[in-house]
Amino acid sequence: MQRKITRRILAVIASATGILAGQATVAPAHAIVGGAWAGKTRHTVQVDVVKLNGTTTRCSGILVDDSWVLTAGHCLWATEPSKVTVHVGSLQLNAGYQRGLKGYTGWNKADVALMELDAPVPLGWAPFPAADHYVDTGTNLAASGWGQTAAGQWPAKLAVCTVRVGRYLENNEHIVHMDVARGDGIQSNGDSGGPIVDAAGVPHAMTISGDNSTVARAVSLADSDLQNWIVSRI
Known about the structure:
Keywords: Disulfide bond, Signal. By secondary structure, the protein is mainly beta.
C-alpha cells in the first residue's frame, strides 16, 4: 500500500442524530466506552452535528476545511440537510459556532460522506497535516467522540481513548480500511465518523464501526482514492 495523501485536513469531532446501518461488517460505532475526557493538545477543533429526526442519536466527523465535514455515510442515511445543525470549536457537546448544512454527498466506494456547511467557520488555528503513510500495526493511536458512555449516557465533554492498529484490509472497491483494538477504551454508539489521530494530532483514519467491546473499524485517510474524492468535491 503505497498510496499517499497530498492534501491537509483538520481533525475534528462531529456528533449527529440519526445513525442507521452502514456497509461495514461490524456494527456501526456509537460511543467511546472507557477512555478519558479529551484535553486541548490533540483535539482543538470540535464539531457537534445535531440531526432532528424525532430521536437523538449521534455521530462524529472530521472537518476537512472551513466549510466541509467528512463523516461516515451511514450517519446521514435518509437525512434531510435541513434537519442537521453543526457546532464547531468546542470540546463541550452542543457548544461552539453553529452552522446548518447546504447539503451533503455520499461516496459509492466506502461508508463516507461529505457535509457542506451553510457558512464557513472562523478557523483561528493551523490545520493538522493529514497522514501520508500507513502507520505500522501495533501502533497506539487516539480515537475520540461524544458517543454514549458505558453507562449509556451522552457525555457533556469530548471523550478520547487509546486504540491499537491491528490489520489492514480492503473493501470490495479496494479502499483501504484498518481494524483497531481496544486499549483503555473503544469506539461505540455515537463515534462513527470520528478521527483516529497520532500523538501529534495527525488523523490517520476515520471510525465507521465498532462492536462495543474489543474492536472497531475505520477507513484509512492514507487511501489515495478517498483523498482524491474529497479534493474533487470541496
